[in-house]
């Protein structure tokens, strides 16, 4: 990161980032609600109380002397979908479209697998999948730098609660966004290690953050319950359009783009030299004014001061974020969990109502005639003897022949069992996680072939969700490949692959123009791709 030499303030950019973050307020509220329901807090929705004030459903039920019960079905559904993802997990494949580039693709596959293990991406993708089911958004940050004393290409999970993006975007692939970023909270020493390059910059950091540490964040209560003593940084990436000149050199057969400052040296002077040599006008460099897209980054302090800025350092030329929002129709985000919350709430109400009716019904009430009470015996003695095993009560029968009797009032059955079954069925139908996917058999005599067919059919309802997340993994892997090509040095590659590898016979691996495709792997290929790549090494 390049620190600014003189103080530069961008309050306009900070305000733009704030507006993007605030525009996602409803999404963060819904995400928090879905997270509460997923992890068991299912009675926290607010409702109008007797006095008109809104209180939590749990508090209202408790005030009525009842116990709010729940049966967390959402968590089971989430675990089942995560189980499907785990069983289908496979390392993405790096494939060369040109058969002549297969040795290079084999090298990249090995490096991609190394980077996957270095970042423990199987676990990261599983936890990101859980976030995707709960909130409908998955975000990773792919960057190169030092972490834990090691420089490498890293993958960080980004909480949607700290992320903001251009809310005017409507493209499912996020190719129309113009601003993206996240909120960082870090201690002062980590902040100085990242942005201070000398004592003067350290002093400036002290001036900026000494009065701000412990103060609520620049975006107000974000997040709620934020720990004090941390310094806030706002990382903002914006898509800019930089004027310049697009040039074509017919003599060399190349196109290139230059800034205004290089026009004289790269075009005008070269054309004069060619004219002096007597070359034809067709060999002159032609140029035209052009606007080029360029992603730039800025790290902002809470007062709008720019701590670091520059253009994208990555070879792909974009921001380092990989984002997948689902389904993103008209820019809207709706999660898997949000679809089944209503069924979960109705199930909880049925269970609670059934419990209230059972507790209100008579269960073994003893009717003991007062005149039949023996002399010297109290009702407490009768109650104690009645509840004791093999107890005996001696009483004096009345002329009216009334005797003590016990009353059992069977609880009314207004169809609770049927209603619960309907709700369970509806939850399976809505979520797509039915009995076959949960490992349940409709019949003990069901054949394995039929069960396997039902399991495959049950994945149909989840196919769109799983493939959408798989597209996120493919895009993330493509960015990994780009960063690996840019930052992995020849010495590191040789150390990772060992002596006699194919890379040593293709020294222009990173300098040549290669066309790789990232495609989904299959579970059967796990552990086999390395052997196949080794075969490609030997054949090359």
The N- to C-terminal Cα distance equals 40 Å
Average pLDDT rating: 83
Rg, rounded, reads: 34 Å
Q: Please report which band the strand proportion falls in: under 5%, 5-15%, 15-25%, 25-35%, 35-45% or over 45%.
A: 15-25%
Biggest sheet statistics: 6 strands, antiparallel
Which structural class fits the helix and strand makeup?
alpha+beta
Treating each run of at least 4 consecutive H or I residues as one helix, how many helices?
16
Question: Shape, please?
Answer: elongated
Secondary-structure map:
Blueprint: H1 11-23, H2 25-38, E1 46-48, E2 54-56, H3 57-63, H4 73-88, E3 93-96, H5 102-119, H6 121-135, E4 137-147, E5 150-157, E6 163-165, E7 179-186, H7 188-195, H8 199-209, E8 231-249, E9 254-258, H9 263-276, E10 286-300, E11 306-311, E12 321-325, E13 327-329, E14 332-333, H10 341-360, E15 363-367, H11 379-387, E16 405-408, H12 416-431, H13 448-458, H14 463-487, H15 490-497, E17 516-519, H16 529-539
Antiparallel strand pairs: 1-2, 3-17, 4-5, 4-12, 6-7, 7-8, 8-9, 8-10, 10-11, 13-14, 15-16
Compact summary:
With 540 residues, the protein is an alpha+beta fold. The protein is built from 16 helices and 17 strands.
Structural overview:
The chain is built from 16 helices and 17 strands. A hairpin with a 5-residue loop joins strand 1 and strand 2. Helix 5 packs across helix 14, helix 5 packs antiparallel against helix 16 and helix 10 runs antiparallel to helix 12. The protein is elongated, with a radius of gyration of 34 Å. It starts with 10 loop residues before the first helix and ends with a helix. The C terminus is likely disordered.
